[in-house]
Amino acid sequence: MERRIDFWRERQMLCGRCDHRWRVDLDWIDRWDQAEETCPGCGMTCEHEDSPRVTVDPEDPALDDDGVARFFWYHTSTQPDWPTRSFDPAAVLTSETRMRMGGGERVAEWAARQRAKALHVGTYEAAVHNMLRRIRDQADQASQFYLYRVRLKPSVVVREGWLVDPSNFVGDVVLDDVCPPGVDVARYLKYHEDPGGLSLALGRNAIASVQRIAVPHPDTWDGGWVRDAVAALEGVSGTAIPATGKPARRMRQPSARAVLGCRRRLKSGSSKISVKPVSELPGV
Predict the structure, then answer these.
(1) H or E element: which one contains 53?
(2) What gap in Å lies between CA 203 and CA 117, rounded to an integer?
(3) 3-state DSSP percent of the chain in helix, strand and coil, to 5
(4) What is the pLDDT of residues 67-117, one digit of tens each?
(5) 4 Cβ partners below 8 Å, 6+ apart?
(6) CA distance 173 to 116
(7) DSSP letters of 3-20?
């Protein structure tokens, strides 16, 4: 079951001092992070230890234990075969790196810790935010990303309630720490990617199947399309088009060139996205 995708939906804020709860949008949260907004209840800013933070919306459908396995969940990665079932983190280590790590026994211990980490899936919005954050902060501008749509096994056992984001400073979660014996999936609150949304920490065995699309698709920016677009744009005026009516007083008016560019950009990509079922992914 697909949920409504809405990057600009309102989020819930909860003050740690006065317990005031109110709704905001992402622009408000951005201003809040820059100390340009205050709690409407007590006037506290973001600099205080118990300052307001985004919290889970009590109407979030993912709070329904029975609904978790019915929803599609999402993940973005530069790995073309996520999640690799036979994951061996030590496979890419050179002999020199293994020696620097202390030899075979230390490498084996490190690999076991890597395999013990939980996988993460979340809302569509969180997956896209994650990709954009990596492009901005982790030098992944030239990387090929993949968007995965994940279907869980109907039999998964969901941990009761939800957790505050349990990730450490590099985003890792030890699966056994959040999913005790008999539990397959744990919900947790996201603070940074799709703030206020619920994501899941889970193991590979909780996943029934995945579908994958490349973002952007490798054929999106073919030379012929670029040449045609440049030729068309060069022949169109860059002068802004005047608008009429009441909304015109509050709008920056686009030029004919901008309008044409937008139309061509939208036309260029949608038919080139392909979806692959889990059976076609290597190692899954």
Answers:
(1) strand 53-55
(2) 8
(3) 35, 20, 45
(4) 999 999 999 999 898 997 777 777 778 888 888 888 888 888 777 677 778
(5) none
(6) 9
(7) PPP-TT--EEEE-TTT--
